[in-house]
Design a protein that fits this description.
By secondary structure, this protein is α+β, with helices and mostly antiparallel strands. It has one domain: Glutamine Phosphoribosylpyrophosphate, subunit 1, domain 1 (4-Layer Sandwich). Helix content is 38%, strand content 32%. The strands form 4 sheets. A 5-stranded antiparallel β-sheet has the order 12-2-3-13-14, covered by helices on one side.
């Protein structure tokens, strides 16, 4: 966490954020659900701190969030959101929409100023309207996207998503597109690596794909 002093040294903060964004996470909206992918490498500068990091977290039965930036900040933000989602569901006797969850995270990130939580998230899931992908940045900005990528490998991943995305894409093909985008990031970005986690959210709920299934998809791309 960084404190904005009276001088508001934004350049210093920007440099710190740049050093802390080593990762790649992405989301793809499909006609029958959403596909989420993230790598498993956690870095501190040039040091590989973990090769088994979990960057896709379950928020509710049909909503997940990916985190990039400071892991502690992202995890705490997801914990706060999960608690709020539980209260919302109990009081209104229905689950919140994906947009509601994304906007709640955005409100927290905006309201903690002059502190700054170094975390950018993809909030993805399914509600009665359909599948949704939201980008939530560290300053509290929320935007809905058809597909999105975060982290140091995002320029590589987004270029693959740009060329391969179709509005009529289904989860089956969305998984292949996500793997192709992640492989591009893994091959060129040193802060991205040590494997891929894949998650599907559809009418059946949240499903974290097992390693064997992920490996088959990787080999098929």
């Amino acid at each position: 966490m960084f404190y904005l002093t009276d001088r508001f040294n934004l350049e210093s903060i920007k440099e710190s954020v740049e050093k802390l964004k080593g990762t790649t996470t992405l989301g793809v909206r499909c006609v029958d659900g959403v596909v989420i992918a993230s790598d498993k490498r956690a870095t501190t500068g040039t040091y590989v701190a973990s090769k088994a990091a979990v960057k896709t977290l379950k928020v509710s039965d049909r909503i997940v969030a990916t985190i990039s930036g400071l892991v502690a900040d992202g995890q705490k933000l997801v914990e706060w959101t999960k608690a709020e989602v539980s209260l919302y569901s109990l009081e209104l006797e229905k689950p919140p929409m994906v947009k509601t969850v994304a906007e709640f995270m955005g409100i927290i990130l905006f309201s903690v100023r002059p502190y700054l939580l170094i975390s950018q998230l993809i909030v993805a899931g399914l509600d009665y309207v359909g599948g949704h992908i939201f980008n939530v940045d560290p300053f509290g900005m929320v935007s809905e996207e058809d597909y999105f990528a975060t982290g140091s490998g995002s320029p590589l991943a987004i270029s693959v998503l740009d060329s391969g995305y179709d509005e009529k894409i289904r989860v089956e093909d969305g998984l292949l597109l996500a793997v192709k985008a992640m492989k591009s990031a893994l091959s060129r970005d040193s802060a991205t690596g040590d494997g891929i986690d894949l998650t599907v959210v559809d009418k059946k709920g949240v499903r974290f794909l097992p390693r064997e299934e992920i490996q088959k998809l990787i080999e098929g791309v």
